[in-house]
């Protein structure tokens, strides 16, 4: 480790992985409830399991992004972190607030939780992904601002690179767009319209900048390719991301009551959204192909390449599948959306955070790479999780196509619940794929505890 | 004849531009402008198929062959699935769409590898659908 304050990243990574485990457990519970409706009812109702599953995903990715920033920025800026104490204090505040929120979801009825936490003063709860009580939302803003202050001050006092600039823009964007979660107009059209400014402009906008910066940082380290070459690619990727992603928000405005022209704008620009992911895949493979060194951390290289491929498939291909307005007219809100959501989140954000953890954790523990044995186990976990996710996506896609047909295309359409019975076989197969994914995740954690001979980088 | 190649450590894309163009058109045909991308690739292949650089010839041959075989495989099997199952059968759509998605995505991924190899001035053979070196 080049700078001792980079060590603050470690608790963030540990917490991220811990919460990831929680997310998958609740995913499995919910997957089971799709086929055995009263599984764990009334202890964990479906809506609560879903809320915990999605909220944990967001929170652990935020922990991952913050940990990544604390690790990367000192090295990029060639200076110690502005305030490591603030970083540690924020870690505990964020973790305790997150834990309290999840416990609130699990043990207090949601309506009571809303009443207890001041939702009457400023109603922000009850919306998908933004279910957090008001104090949690305010806490997120405070933590984000203090975190950004810390990171920005570090960048300002040190070297400025394209990677740290893109990372900062992404992180500031993340915080700024979250502010729209406090805007909850009575008009349902307006509510949904601005709700997407948080959700879409996060995952198909500013988060992609963070993704690009993280990937570029790891690729510089593991390939030894000149920074100038990698930075040129990064500029191209973020330009493509912003050009396609911002107006691409329109693909969410087709049927919510927004003007009809969004069907054209949304279709055209979101059809172009796979392009930045395409560039990212070519970028990752290109850099590894022309590497100047054999980095001993082969697992990190595998995660980096996997990020490119899976992000392109999940966000690009599966996104395009249902993004054109005439197709979306039939597929909107079906299991096809769930298929896309699963693979896109895994490919783009889960994998890039794991890429950085895979690269940084051995360094934080005093070595360039883990032992061969540990890396083999980690690579097994990569393949198990990735293949399981491919199957989860395929089964959900199959369920979605059948659902669309039975519920929306057939001459005598079935009701939603009757359709769910017809696609249960796919839900079972998805659940078993989820179990394999969980085994992969357990192996990933096991890989951290495997000892053996460690090596340093060779040129 | 000796062919000078740019230094890969200095140039962002040291591979021959025609090879890169061939691989790019293969991907454009799959992703952005189907048919038009293929027609442009046909034109490029026709004009440069006897190019003095064996790397250019190889990428042109590979992309032409992969486009023809890959396209035929993709279209014929998809049509076959709907012909056998019928357009009114939901299972035709489940299998047909999944098949098309998987094969199409696989061709794109192979195209990625071809493009990266061309950009770095390396040879590339598409597995199964690409011809062996003469």
Structural class of chain B: mainly alpha
Largest interface, Cβ cutoff 8 Å = A-B, 26 and 25 residues
Strand content of chain A: under 5%
Radius of gyration of chain A: 22 Å
Average residue-wise pLDDT of chain B: 91
Global structural class of chain A: mainly alpha
Attribute tags:
heterodimer; A: 459 residues; mainly alpha; 75% helix; globular; B: 134 residues; 4 helices; elongated
What is the topological layout?
The complex is a heterodimer of chains A (459) and B (134).
Chain A: H1 9-35, H2 46-77, H3 84-107, H4 110-116, H5 134-157, H6 162-178, H7 188-223, H8 227-248, H9 262-271, H10 274-289, H11 298-321, H12 325-331, H13 335-364, H14 372-409, H15 416-422, H16 424-447
Chain B: H1 17-31, H2 36-48, H3 54-85, H4 90-119
Helix pairs in contact in B: 1-2, 1-3, 1-4, 2-3, 3-4
What does this structure look like?
The complex is a heterodimer of chains A (about 450) and B (about 130). In chain A, about 75% of the residues lie in helices and about 0% in strands. Chain A has about 450 residues and is mainly α. Chain A has a domain at about 1-160. The longest helix of chain A is centred in the last third of the chain and has 38 residues, at about 370-410. The model of chain A has no long low-confidence stretch (mean pLDDT about 95). Chain B has one domain (about 15-120). Helices cover about 65% and strands about 0% of the residues of chain B. Chain B contains 4 helices and no strands. The chains are: A mainly alpha (about 450), B mainly alpha (about 130).
């Amino acid at each position: 480790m080049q700078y001792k304050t980079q060590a603050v990243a470690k608790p963030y990574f540990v917490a991220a992985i811990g919460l990831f485990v929680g997310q998958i457990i609740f995913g499995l519970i919910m997957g089971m409830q799709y086929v055995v409706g009263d599984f764990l009812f009334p202890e964990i109702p479906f809506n609560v399991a879903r809320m915990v599953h999605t909220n944990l995903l967001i929170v652990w990715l935020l922990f991952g992004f913050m940990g990544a920033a604390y690790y990367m920025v000192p090295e990029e800026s060639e200076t110690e972190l502005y305030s490591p104490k603030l970083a540690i204090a924020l870690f505990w505040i964020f973790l305790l607030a997150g834990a309290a929120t999840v416990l609130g979801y699990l043990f207090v009825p949601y309506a009571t939780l809303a009443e207890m936490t001041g939702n009457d003063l400023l109603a922000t709860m009850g919306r998908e992904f933004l279910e957090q009580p008001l104090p949690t939302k305010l806490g997120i803003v405070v933590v984000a601002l203090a975190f950004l202050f810390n990171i920005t001050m570090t960048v300002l006092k040190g070297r400025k690179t394209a990677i740290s600039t893109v990372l900062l823009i992404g992180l500031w964007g993340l915080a700024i767009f979250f502010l729209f979660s406090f805007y909850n107009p009575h008009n349902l059209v307006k509510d949904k319209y601005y709700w997407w400014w948080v959700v879409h402009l996060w995952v198909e906008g500013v988060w992609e900048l963070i993704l690009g910066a993280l990937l570029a940082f790891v690729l510089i380290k593991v390939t030894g390719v000149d920074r100038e070459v990698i930075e040129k690619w990064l500029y191209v990727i973020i330009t493509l991301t912003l050009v396609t992603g911002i107006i691409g928000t329109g693909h969410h405005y087709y049927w919510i009551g927004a003007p009809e022209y969004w069907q054209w704008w949304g279709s055209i620009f979101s059809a172009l959204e796979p392009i930045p992911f395409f560039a990212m895949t070519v970028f990752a493979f290109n850099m590894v192909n022309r590497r100047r060194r054999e980095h001993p951390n082969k697992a990190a290289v595998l995660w980096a390449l996997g990020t490119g491929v899976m992000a392109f498939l999940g966000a690009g291909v599966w996104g395009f599948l249902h993004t054109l307005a005439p197709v979306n007219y039939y597929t909107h809100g079906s299991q096809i959306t769930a298929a896309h959501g699963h693979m896109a989140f895994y490919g783009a954000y889960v994998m890039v955070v794991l890429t950085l953890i895979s690269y940084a954790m051995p360094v934080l523990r005093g070595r360039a790479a883990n032992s061969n044995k540990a890396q083999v186990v980690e690579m097994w976990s990569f393949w198990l999780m990735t293949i399981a996710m491919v199957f989860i996506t395929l089964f959900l896609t199959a369920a979605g196509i059948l659902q669309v047909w039975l519920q929306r295309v057939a001459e005598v359409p079935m009701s939603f619940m009757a359709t769910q019975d017809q696609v249960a076989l796919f839900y079972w197969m998805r659940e078993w794929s989820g179990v394999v994914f969980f085994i992969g995740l357990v192996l990933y954690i096991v890989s951290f505890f495997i000892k053996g001979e460690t090596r340093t980088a060779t040129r | 004849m000796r062919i000078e190649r740019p230094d890969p450590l200095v140039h962002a894309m040291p591979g021959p531009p025609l090879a890169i163009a061939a691989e790019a058109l293969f991907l454009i045909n799959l992703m952005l402008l189907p048919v038009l991308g293929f027609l442009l690739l046909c034109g490029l292949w026709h004009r440069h198929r006897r190019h003095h650089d064996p790397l250019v010839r190889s990428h042109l041959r590979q992309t032409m062959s992969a486009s023809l075989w890959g396209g035929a495989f993709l279209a014929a099997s998809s049509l076959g699935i709907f012909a056998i199952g019928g357009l009114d059968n939901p299972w035709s759509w489940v299998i047909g769409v999944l098949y098309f998605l998987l094969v199409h995505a696989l061709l794109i991924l192979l195209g990625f590898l071809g493009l990266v190899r061309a950009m770095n001035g390396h040879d590339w053979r598409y597995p199964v659908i690409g011809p062996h070196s003469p």
